[in-house]
Design brief:
By secondary structure, the chain is mainly alpha-helical. 82% of the residues lie in helices and 0% in strands. It has helices at residues 2-21, 31-61, 64-88, 93-118, 123-149, 154-177, 187-210, 215-239, 246-265.
Length: 271
């Protein structure tokens, strides 16, 4: 586990550095800060895209620790994108904080899921840890949407929950019966995770419709949909024989990182 501890130390150092980059999160704001923070935002976004490309090359070609380290860097950059967006759009620290916590859990989930390929004897533990990290991350996303979208009625607040329950149950049944996926002992956690995964999209879609297609909810809806698509591909990779070709690896990760960067960017437009 030495490699894992070293990785966490590096990520921790990056988070401390980001605190130095964005003093506006702790003190006053001025126009010069906003210009600088905007530059940081676009730099983080561009660096993130480049890092994802590098990660995919290393993941497909080598895997192992090279893939893990490059993935952690790419995932840290969607966190940095959200932090820089918060600096550009001050006064919305609670929303930004909820999104950042969700992204931190996404980063940790990425590490857990890749560790299962390196320490195969502990594969089940790492897979469960990844499921739980991402699931709690979605709880933060959902909480942010419910708290800040506004214009909720009993119907619009409850409807995403009902739809997500139906989708979660239907996903397990259809995936196993028609798509021949083998969830095995992970059947229950897949169903629970699917509920929270689809809730992110369903709640943000309702928020978008309730709030005249506000940009932040368009971005959250797009991010939620991309996340769901990414995990659908991931399910075939994990649970179907022959479901892990290079094309699926690329499609899964491109859609996943697009989802997280889009969700991070919603912080820029929250009002």
């Amino acid at each position: 586990m030495l490699h894992f501890n070293l990785l966490l130390n590096r990520v921790g150092c990056c988070i401390l550095i980001s605190d130095e980059f964005f003093p506006r999160l702790r003190s006053g704001y001025n126009e010069e800060d906003i210009i600088l923070s905007t530059a940081y935002f676009y730099a983080a976004l561009a660096a993130g895209i480049a890092a994802v490309v590098v990660f995919l090359v290393l993941r497909v070609k080598y895997g192992g620790l090279k893939g893990l380290y490059s993935k952690a860097i790419a995932s840290f950059l969607f966190l940095l994108t959200a932090l820089s967006a918060a600096a550009v759009n001050p006064g919305h620290e609670v929303y930004a904080g909820l999104i950042v916590f969700g992204l931190v859990l996404g980063l940790s989930g990425d590490i857990w899921l890749d560790l299962k390929w390196i320490y195969e004897k502990d594969m089940e533990k790492f897979l469960n840890a990844g499921f739980i990290a991402f699931m709690i991350g979605h709880v933060f996303y959902i909480g942010a949407i419910y708290k800040f979208a506004g214009n909720w009625s009993v119907l619009t607040a409850v409807l995403p929950i009902i739809i997500s329950v139906v989708v979660a149950i239907g996903n397990v049944i259809v995936s196993e019966k028609l798509l021949k996926l083998k969830f095995g002992k992970f059947r229950t956690i897949v169903g629970v995770y699917t509920f929270f995964l689809f809730m992110t999209f369903a709640v943000s879609a309702v928020a978008m419709l309730n709030n005249s297609f506000a940009k932040q909810w368009i971005l959250m809806s797009a991010g939620g949909l991309l996340f769901a698509f990414s995990d659908a591909v991931l399910s075939t990779m994990y649970c179907k024989e022959g479901g892990n070709p290079k094309a699926n690896i690329i499609i899964n990760h491109v859609s996943y990182y697009a989802a997280q960067f889009v969700i991070a960017s919603s912080v820029l437009f929250i009002k």
